[in-house]
Amino acid sequence: MAKSCKGLAEELVKCLSESMCVKDEKRSIRDCAGEKSPCIPSECVGLRETYFNCKRGQLKEALSHRFSLSLAHLRRRQRHTTSRRVSRRRISIPSPQKLSSMATMARSFLQAISKDEAVAPPLRVVQIEGLAVLKIIKHCKEFAPTLVTGQLLGLDVGSVLEVTNCFPFPVRDDDEEIEADGANYQLEMMRCLREVNVDNNTVGWYQSTVLGSYQTVELIETFMNYQENIKRCVCIIYDPSKADLGVLALKALKLSDSFMELYRAGNFTGEKLREKNFSWMDIFEEIPIKVSNSALVSAFMTELETDAPVSQGDYDRLQSSTTPFLENNMEFLIKCMDDLSMEQQKFQYYYRNLSRQQAQRQAWLQKRRTENMARRSAGEEPLPEEDPSNPIFKPIPEPSRLESFLITNQVSNFCGQINGVAGQNFSRLYLTKALHEN
Amino acid sequence: MAATNEHTVLQFVTPSSTASTTTQVLTARIHPLVIFNVCDCFVRRPDSAERVIGTLLGSILPDGTVDIRNSYAVPHNESSDQVAVDIDYHHNMLASHLKVNPKEVIVGWYSTGSGVNGGSALIHDFFAREATNPIHLTVDTGFTNGEGTIKAYVSSNLSLGDRQLAAQFQEIPVDLRMVEAERVGYDVLKATAVDKLPNDMEGMELTMERLLTLINDVYKYVDSVVEGKTSPDNNIGRFIAEAVASLPKLPPQVFDNLVNDSLQDQLLLLYLSSITRTQLSLAEKLNTAAQML
Question: What does the pLDDT read at residue A8?
Fold first, then answer.
């Protein structure tokens, strides 16, 4: 694939070097590459566009392979979470060096060439088609309680991200050799869907979750992987356990920009966070979801299922035994608080160490100074006031706050859920009371 | 090629190989996802094609009902005398789908447009080689009868001696089923556009309103019967009596205690979650507080 694009590149360079821009104005080829006609002849513009598209096609192939690798990693992590306890063990992502270098090369050239790429408006709404919603529900529900993932396909239009279709990923039991299989599956699916005119653009991925405990480091890493290749991507979280309560628990998440910058810098110390005034609430941004359906589909649906005055969802909502759900929530909440307190203890330990180190430093410095005084009076060279080989001068690494932020997010999520359900329960109880009085 | 579809559905008797199997009525149960898929594929079809065909995936339940759960479109070309189906595509998609869900196998195929024609019979033959006794589903996207109809057929071969004369498509009853979780999202799926998904409390509100309407209706009905405006229907009367009688008969004291206990439990939970939230904000302040050194 790279060979065909190289031919185009050579042609482009040749055309540009013979153009007015380079010959007469004596500018560099790279400069002229971004110009429009009449500075460079229209054939050069045409060649440039063709080269553009060729590189884009390459990127697409590269990025689809990359996704499958990162998603395989996500799936592996999810297998470890079959127990009720949400585990946060870290697994390192295998990084495809060759692909990433090719992608960055292509990207930088593209950026150099195209100076008029518009800045994308911020994402305001995610519009999902009923078809995608049904598919997600079906897939997540069939495999509950195993956690499953899938890919979202759609279009990125202005401030709306449209999700028009999706396909599920198979659940993998074994490890390493399935990487290639997973990539093949993905490419195959996308190719087949393109043949039936389905939008072939990846816009994100979806995953199922248990009681809303989805904030993990792996999620962030997958996000970062995706973000490098697509400008806007979203993760849809679906919670099948809430369907019993009559709620359609679908959420669209995105990492906030400030968080992404921080993450790229890899620096989560207190200083940085205070500078940016960044709190745990700023990591994830939830985007409102709109559901749309084609007219044909809603015509069919309306006909097949006439408007009943009361639907099954209502029955579910009126049922008052929410105890199992609440119990599970409380259990998870308690476990998360335990984790949080562990993280807090880490910080305490760090601070204690730091202050102890400072005290030691002071003491040592004092000693050195008195020694130096003695030496100066004896006419000898004063010793340096710092000694890097001494372990008390070694800076202690500050523990990253990322983990505690994520746990905090989870805890607040659980709290929110409990609040919601408790509120519903209140209404239900008052309802029964009223009924009984009559 | 003969095709019959009558409005009263003839009971289709599956040929029984052993003497002991009783006659079974074959029915097809469809999940709404299939309809959504078909409509979506129809809307996206290439301009030259008049109809879309595709494969149906699902399973056969032990009582003989065919459960159709998923589907995908297969590109095909149809002219007046020839039908070409992209078989490689079909096999590739099947393999991909089986990787995700090995239990969903081919149970038949669908096509949009009403009626069964010659081309369909050929395609049906092809699918008969892929699965035993495939179901042919027609989804009328053209709304020819003024309504969208979904019909399912099975075909049997009419033969005279050794010669194959025709294939007869016989209609079987279709049942549209929704799984629990899908029902929950049902309101959302029916409209052409929904601005936002209702969260917990809003859903609750909706439910309460509906319940209120129902009770009002019942009230009006009873009133009108008492006043003699409408003739009493014993069945409805019995239903109402049953509903009212199903309220548990507890002495008011016991009931009050019950309600109060539950209320207290809920309050306790709310209190716990608010405390946790406060703890979180405190912890955050401490975490990023200036280090006092």
Answer: 66
